[in-house]
Specification:
Elements: E1 7-12, H1 18-26, E2 44-50, E3 53-60, H2 67-75, H3 84-95, H4 102-112, E4 116-122, H5 130-141, E5 145-150, H6 158-165, E6 171-174, H7 182-193, H8 197-234, E7 237-241, H9 248-276, E8 284-285, H10 290-300, H11 309-320, H12 324-330, H13 339-346, E9 359-367, E10 370-378, H14 383-399, E11 409-410, H15 424-437, H16 445-462
Parallel strand pairs: 1-3, 1-4, 4-5, 5-6, 8-11
Antiparallel strand pairs: 2-3, 7-10, 9-10
The structure holds guanosine-5'-triphosphate and magnesium ion.
Length: about 475
């Protein structure tokens, strides 16, 4: 069963974070992790596959249950060092059907098939002699091995663990699968590359591919974000109306549809970004739906996203005159929406700050014999920044999230309210393209590419690569 890529069996005591390490190293969110000891009951392999090529494979295994009994069996006959692995093979052969050693058989099999050993301990619990039988058994297999100290909570027994592990393993590293960042992941791969000479080249190559792949994922995310912004800003919703004039109900209905559509494309875009990072199962915590968020922003500060003074005066003046004709003025005179209707639909707080002008609404002429009204493209100047900030923040959280950490992504972070995420220079260029997207003319590929490059540059600043 020889495979031409490196394979690593992650083994140890139950409930020490073996599956967490597999999940993080294989970038796989499907690895079962839980605080109940004995969660993993079977060996299962998780290949890290990029563009159809397997770079390396992690094998998750159940924890040792009867290490002492197994070691006693091994030691029952005296064998020379060169025959020890045969003795282990014999044990597996003879106990294949023995339920008492089910977990030991599962964890030994991949090792006997050539997998390197990653022995995991919890450095927040004291070292104890009971681990010696486990380490001794692993030594009997003769396979290359390293130990990882995982600090599950705050107490630190790392020093004593290092002393003990040093007797059994040439390589001992501290690695926390819940907090590991990109460079820690790479550093660990570099250690793994040393385990066996013929693995050095493929693991080093994996590191290169891995690094390129991460940049590609950043580029893919930037592309998705650009498409989201262009699609949202240029979107136009229309609704046919029954009479000459649109009723208040019809206007509200259309605006509701318009908002629903924008929420939907944001959600779809976020889902695709999550897929890009292999994090489809992660949930979000406390994300306000798109337009509610705008109210939140408007309450926080009038100068959010640094709208220029001139823009503030314009929107402020229009907002100040927020009654019937004032609103018509603000919307360019073609609106048939009354101030009160806008207020009712969108909610009050933003009014004075001019956050209420969401989109232009027009009554248009005959279309298949009936009149219809339209909303869009998006006229609110802050809207794209809110949309953009949410997408960038989400991407950043996904990119920095090890796959063992399954907690929800906090979308109500204060960070989302700050203005530091974008420089003045970047904003100038971005604003120009936002204007283009909402101008009503078709978005050209060249413009979308330019926007994508700007987004990519922002992401590259935020995400380690
Ligand atoms: N805070 C914290 N929790 C961790 C860490 N590593 C593992 N855990 C938690 O410890 C528990 C056990 O993790 P698993 O990865 O399932 O452990 P395992 O060794 O595979 O367990 P079995 O399959 O039952 O042998 C889970 O609740 C994890 O979330 C860590 O580095 N930090
Ligand atoms: Mg497990």
């Amino acid at each position: 069963m020889s495979k031409n890529y490196p394979r690593f069996a992650v083994v140890g005591h139950p409930n020490k974070g073996k599956s967490s390490i597999v999940s993080t190293l294989a970038h796989d969110e499907t690895v079962q992790i839980s605080d109940i000891p004995g969660t993993t009951t079977k060996q299962r392999s998780f290949p890290l596959q990029i563009d159809g090529e397997i770079l390396y494979e992690l094998i998750d295994t159940p924890g040792f249950q009867r290490a002492r009994a197994l070691l006693e069996w091994l030691e029952r006959e005296e064998v020379s060092a060169d025959r020890k692995v045969e003795r282990v093979q014999r044990f597996v052969y003879e106990h294949r059907e023995d339920p008492r050693f089910h977990d030991e058989i599962e964890l030994l099999e991949p090792i006997l098939h050539g997998a390197g050993i990653i022995y995991v301990v919890d450095g927040s619990k004291p070292y104890g002699a009971e681990y010696e039988a486990e380490m001794e058994i692993l030594r009997w297999t003769g396979q290359p091995s390293m130990a990882l100290i995982n600090l599950i909570d705050d107490t630190d027994y790392v020093a004593e663990w290092k002393r003990a592990l040093g007797h059994y393993f040439r390589l001992v590293r501290v690695f926390n699968p819940m907090e590991a960042n990109f460079s820690q992941h790479i550093a660990l791969l570099e250690s793994m590359a040393q385990l066996r000479e013929e693995w050095t080249a493929p693991v080093k190559r994996s590191i290169d591919i891995f690094t390129t792949y991460r940049k590609q994922k950043i580029a893919d995310s930037a592309q998705l974000i650009s498409e989201l912004l262009a699609a949202s800003l240029s979107y136009v919703e229309s609704l046919s109306i029954s009479g000459e004039e649109a009723s208040r109900k019809e206007k509200e209905k259309m605006l509701e549809r318009y908002k629903m559509h924008l929420r939907k494309i944001e959600e779809q875009s976020h889902r695709k970004i999550a897929e890009t990072w292999n994090h489809s199962k992660l949930e979000k915590e406390a994300q306000l739906p798109l337009f509610q968020e705008m109210d939140l922003f408007s309450r926080e500060s009038a100068s959010l996203f640094g709208l220029g003074k001139k823009e503030m005066i314009v929107t402020g003046a229009a907002g100040g005159a927020l009654t019937g004709s004032g609103v018509d003025l603000m919307l360019g005179g073609t609106s048939m929406m009354l101030g009160s209707a806008i207020g009712a639909v969108i909610g009050g707080a933003g009014a004075l700050l001019g956050f209420n002008e969401i989109a232009e609404m027009k009554v248009l002429g005959q279309k298949l014999g009936s009149r219809y009204i339209e909303a869009g493209p998006m006229q609110n100047r802050n809207f794209p920044y809110i949309l953009l900030r949410r997408a960038l923040y989400y991407t950043q959280e996904l990119a920095n999230r090890p796959h063992a950490d399954r907690s929800k992504i906090q979308m109500d972070s204060q960070e989302l309210l700050g203005t530091e995420w974008i420089s003045t220079g970047q904003k100038k260029e971005i604003e120009k393209l936002h204007q283009l997207f909402r101008s009503g003319s078709a978005v050209k590929e060249k413009q979308l590419d330019a926007y994508c490059r700007l987004i990519q540059a922002i992401l590259l600043e935020k995400i380690e690569h």
